[in-house]
Amino acid sequence: MSRQRRRAVVRIVALTALVATATLTGCAPQPKTAKEIQQVEDDDKADRAAVQHEIQRLYDEAAALVADTWPKPDTMNWQTACGDYADGTQSETWNIANQYKGPTKFSPEETAERVAKMLTDYGFPTKVIEDNKIYPPRKVVSYPPYLTGVREDGFAIVFTIGENYSDFSGYSRCAPIDPDDPVLPKNW
User: Fold this and answer.
1) With CB atoms 3.0 to 4.6 Å apart as the test, which of 12, 73, 149, 161 could cross-link to 108 if both were Cys?
2) DSSP character for 142?
3) Which residues pair with 77 in a beta bridge?
4) How far, in Å, CA of 85 to CA of 38, rounded?
5) H or E segment to which residue 108 belongs
6) How far apart are CA 97 and CA 60, in angstroms?
């Protein structure tokens, strides 16, 4: 290949890469400042007890559809994953995560449909999908839709069920951090 031809190929490849990069980054909305990335709207402030109760109720009802007894949840705590409110108040989300291993009351399909109906009845419209890429393969009920993250207010539920296995992960709406929380530097 001649030297001129190699240069032309290199230029075409470089131009193609530049156009592709510009297209991909130009389409995504860019944050204006670093503070905007962390802000949660002040009007999204929720009552801590109410958001904790909401996730606990959804967990309890989903778990009861699977089996009469589940082990104590692996995770049940407040997590600072929400960012700050526009007024500077820190916020956090109540999280419950747990797994059940053993026989279930109904088939995975029927249980998933029942959980989807329960969530939909509570105002979280969802449907059952199947994920064969996880092991064991499972039916998945998720709000917001599976693998899309959390709502803007921090809320998310993911329930999966397969043969002799089920799990639940729930994240509450963001709520102001407890002013007496030991993670705050003023309480050290």
Assistant:
1) 161
2) E
3) 95
4) 8
5) helix 108-121
6) 12
CB 67 within 8 A of CB 100: yes
Q: What are the residues whose beta carbons fall under 8 Å from the beta carbon of 94, sequence distance 6 or more?
A: 48, 51, 52, 55, 77, 78, 79, 171, 172, 175
Distance CA 69, CA 63 (A): 8
The Cα diameter of the chain in Å comes to 75
The letter for the amino acid at 96 is: I
Q: Which long-range contacts (CB under 8 A, 24 or more apart) does 2-5 make?
A: none
In tens, the pLDDT along 35-68 reads 443 445 555 577 889 999 999 999 999 999 999 9
What is the full DSSP assignment across 55-92?
HHHHHHHHHHHH-S--PPPSEEEEE--S-EETTS-BEE
Per-residue pLDDT tens over the stretch 164-173: 999 999 999 9
Per the listing, tokens 């998720």 go with: 142
Q: Are 100 and 167 in contact (CB under 8 A)?
A: yes
CA 52/CA 76 separation, integer angstroms: 10
